[in-house]
Design goal:
Number of domains: 3
Helix content: 40-55%
Strand content: 5-15%
Radius of gyration: 24 Å
Largest sheet: 9 strands, mixed
Distance between the termini: 50 Å
Structural class: alpha/beta
Number of helices: 17
Order of helices and strands: HHHHHHEHEEHEHEHEHEHEHEHHEHHEE
Oligomer: single chain
CATH topology of the largest domain: Rossmann fold
CATH architecture of the largest domain: 3-Layer(aba) Sandwich
CATH class of the largest domain: Alpha Beta
Strand order of the largest sheet: 1-2-6-5-4-3-7-8-9
């Protein structure tokens, strides 16, 4: 079975996908590449002008001691599925980037997702509340569609993207920066389980035992953007992983989109740089569809604030909603704007929270929800 030779190659940490695929394309068969004799490998090295010499030496050293069958069985016994570069199911969009992964290990079912409607969402790991609310608003407009959201299962924007996808009935694919034995961050374990149990897939190019080392996350980013027709950046500082993914998106010839944010937030400096150089501005879901030239049949969102029943709210509650429409306000600020007495204001705010129309934020301020 050819699959185990792909796994054997990818289980060696000191070599990478570009080397494995170069060998495969040179020999035309992965088993032949793995078992090539010294003369054949010297000819391969000469053809590549010695570019792969160090990685070839590492491969030869490991091949002497590597138990190929055991290495392969370790993957299977963990119920990890394998997708190789030569597999007919290998995603078309990913295969067409300059450095596609040689092997993808996954749990869940990526083929239950619409791989012709993939949107990457990336951003700051220290995502602001404003950015979270903006993304929530944008994604609520995609509820019930067949779009698939791709992100990196990291903290911040990645977590928000996957969470909002799940909440809006969208499939989602998480690309992680380590092996499937080493989920990072561990705080996303519950989300990981939710995704792989019928809501999408979690994928990686790394053998299950590989640790999520820092250098692997920038490598992971090319898969996030490469699997997708476009990338939406929520927040990005001038030096950030999100900006790296944005640049990869452009290099891969895909559409780049940005949600604008507060100009006082340093994490939006990268956003405005991208917008000034031609990225599409996104303020609602239609902007995404226009940028990608997608026509889709939208079903009714799970919850649409425009259709939510506000007919039963009182006149005082309407005043409160108007007061917090634009930005969060403190209790005293709301009282000053509405002139509602303190006891009634407390009662009305509590009722609006229970109805889901307002919520408290940091600093005991109240804001209108963006459900």
């Amino acid at each position: 079975m050819n699959e185990k030779y792909w796994v054997g190659f990818s289980s060696i940490e000191e070599i990478d996908s570009s080397f494995i695929i170069a060998l495969f394309e040179y020999f035309g068969d992965i088993e032949r590449a793995y078992n090539a004799d010294m003369d054949e490998l010297i000819n391969f090295s000469a053809q590549s002008s010695g570019f792969y010499k160090k990685r070839l030496d590492k491969f030869l050293n490991h091949r002497k001691t590597l138990d190929l069958d055991k290495t392969y069985e370790e993957v299977l016994k963990r119920d990890i599925k394998i997708l190789t570069y030569e597999d007919k199911k290998y995603p078309y969009m990913l295969k067409n980037i300059s450095d596609p992964p040689a092997v993808l290990y996954y749990k869940g079912n990526p083929f239950d997702c619409n791989l012709d409607r993939t949107l990457a969402i990336v951003g700051s790991r220290r995502m602001s509340r404003n950015a979270q609310d903006s993304l929530k608003k944008v994604m609520s407009g995609l509820a019930g569609t067949d779009l698939c959201i791709v992100s990196g299962l990291a903290t911040g924007a990645d977590t928000a993207a996957h969470r909002f996808a799940l909440d809006n009935g969208l499939k989602t694919i998480g690309i992680i920066g380590g092996g499937l034995d080493n989920l990072y961050p561990t705080s996303n374990k519950t989300m990981f389980e939710e995704i792989i149990n019928g809501r999408g897939a979690v994928m990686t190019e790394y053998y299950h035992s590989f640790e999520p080392l820092p250098f692997r996350f920038p490598q992971r980013n090319r898969i996030v953007s490469g699997l997708s027709y476009g990338t939406l950046v929520v927040e990005a500082a001038l030096k950030s992983g999100a900006l790296i993914t944005a640049n990869l998106t452009l290099e891969q010839g895909r559409e780049l989109m940005c949600i604008p944010g507060l100009i006082t937030n340093p994490n939006t400096a990268g956003i405005y740089k991208l917008l000034k150089t031609g990225a599409h501005m996104v303020t609602d879901s239609d902007d995404i569809l226009d940028a990608l030239k997608w026509t889709i049949n939208k079903q009714m969102p799970l919850f649409d604030e425009n259709n939510s029943d506000k007919s039963n709210i009182s006149e005082d509650e309407a005043k409160i909603l108007s007061a917090v429409e634009i930005e969060p306000k403190s209790f005293d600020e709301i009282q000053k704007i509405t002139n509602i007495n303190i006891d009634n204001l407390l009662m009305n705010l509590t009722n609006l929270e229970l109805l889901g129309f307002v919520e408290q934020t940091a600093g005991d301020r109240y804001k209108k929800t963006t459900i």
